[in-house]
Amino acid sequence: MQVQNPFPLSRDELLTVYRQMRTIREFEERLHIDFGRGDIPGFVHLYAGEEATAAGIMHHLNDGDRIASTHRGHGHCIAKGVDVVGMMKEIYGKKGGSCNGKGGSMHIADLSRGMMGANGILGAGGPLICGAALAAKYRNKGEVGICFFGDGASNQGTILESMNLAGVWNLPVIFVVENNGYAESTSRDYGTAVDSYVDRAAGFGLPGVTVDGTDFFAVHEAAGAVIKRAREGGGPSLLECKMVRYFGHFEGDAQTYRAPGELDDIRANHNCLKILGDQLTAAGIISQSELTKIDEEVMVLIEHSVKEAKAAPFPTLADLTTDVYINY
Amino acid sequence: MSDIQTPPCVGIIANPVSARDIRRIIANASNLQTSERVSILLRVLTTLAASGVERVLMMPDKGGISAMLLRSLKRERSQNHQFPELEFVDMSVTSTVNDTFFAARSMQQAGVNAIIVLGGDGTHRAVVRELMLGTQAGKKAVPIAGLSTGTNNAFPEMREPTITALAVGLYATQRLKGTQALAQNKVLEVSIDQGQRRDIAIVDAIISRDRFIGARAIWKTDNLEAAYLTFADPQVIGLSAIGGLLEPVGRTETGGLTISISDDPGRCKFRLKAPIAPGMIADIGIAGFERMPAGQPFSVALEAGVIALDGEREMPFDTHEQVSITLHENAFQTIDVTRCMQVAAREGLYIHQPSRLS
Asked: What is the ipTM of this complex?
């Protein structure tokens, strides 16, 4: 008897989503090791643990939809379709990287995919996405903009101003709060006066919804509703995804602010990749061996990307003055 | 004999995440802000203090309610406003429904006289589920008083919290007896494979052909298969409104209602428009409905799907699993606010002599 697919995505789509989330996880786990070895210049902030949110939202987007990412942007890039080898080269600071090796982790961008860039400035994505969404509104093709920011950046004036602007101009924007509980090392309880981000949105007349950001299907369903609303002219809204961060704020963060056992609990009980894998195999539509095969293929891809990155040359002095100005 | 604890102590469970689900997007449902929830709590606390309740045991949270309440109390106390002694349940906060379970269990163990619940149907269900388990294990039954801060709110009535707190105060301080103050309520017991998995609903258990939990709140009507209702009020919203507009059943009336739902032209007998979420009037195909006598298990015909309990998808079930639903009466107690205040007025409980100023 053929098993009925109980999920709102086709079997092929589910395999693609799993592959995407596994790619993000392995990409970040590998950077954790390589950064610790001193192989990587600059700084990295890892997205591991938060994959379900990027995948659940980006599944609804096309290349014409724009996203403004954060300092923790690798997961957004991969889920938006940015080339993994190009990303690895970029993080290694090499030619052939997404930005030719001149930006590094916090400036990966690929406008052909609608990825407007990771961003080292907290809360900077708000005004940027309002601009992109204003353009989308004029183009009138149903494109939307997604602004990712963390619970810490939610307290930046830029985010609040952007919510106001998006409300006034009825822009097709979704403000996505990736709430992992810590603004760097400051817990949300300590640093945020009104802890509900849905309340913040309500202050600007935007509807908001909170979901479990570790459950791909919860994020996917809620994101589908807010994105559809924006595409149809319903205007801006806010989506809060409650999630967990596997690593420190930055690599090298000793994480002394966490409770004893907190990280063990996160990895044991809030592993979004395992949650998705278990949902798929329990429903009987995808086997564990199919998932394992994807895991292996992803490992090969990541290994390949690191080899390519290490082998690629650094930018030259002449590269310093290219891509700085653009003539329109 | 009095069951009442001396000095009077009342529990408060305020869910910080009620009214935050997807229905705000798809149906413009209301969003009660944290600051308003704290205002409600301050009104409840001052009213309990004025009623003679000396101690309140409250669930802590990381959603902003406790933190904002403590800041507000500091301000209020500096102005010499009177509040009961406020103590938080000693627990580690998980920001999941487990917090509600743990807090309800602790409060029952501590012997509170009543628990005031701020939330929607889902929050009330979680509190009742835990209290019923405690009662079955031999602990004293604790009545609840609901304050509506959720989305659908078929169970908690819409009322100014000051009045609810007055009624709770009357019962907690023994000015009203249980026979005067309390009402009995029905529950639906959902059992999968002869009790391998069990849960309850206090308003509605909905069977959907969806098979995943997703964003939890049930809002799409395309896949609805059946509804089982403890009561069906034509003046409430939510999926129980389908029953309310078909065959009203009172909260204290005996029995419940079961409805078969289908868009299949071969099964659908007629269609019904019902407010299944705030601002969302859905057109539902009705295949049949019947009264649901207490104590009689009803087998779910659908082979595989998900059961939504009081508005939220909770229990997926598969082709090899048998689901049955049974209505139970006199399952738990609530503070009957209307009756409390009527008795208080009739017996002059708030009349007193003028203070003699020296």
From this structure: 0.77
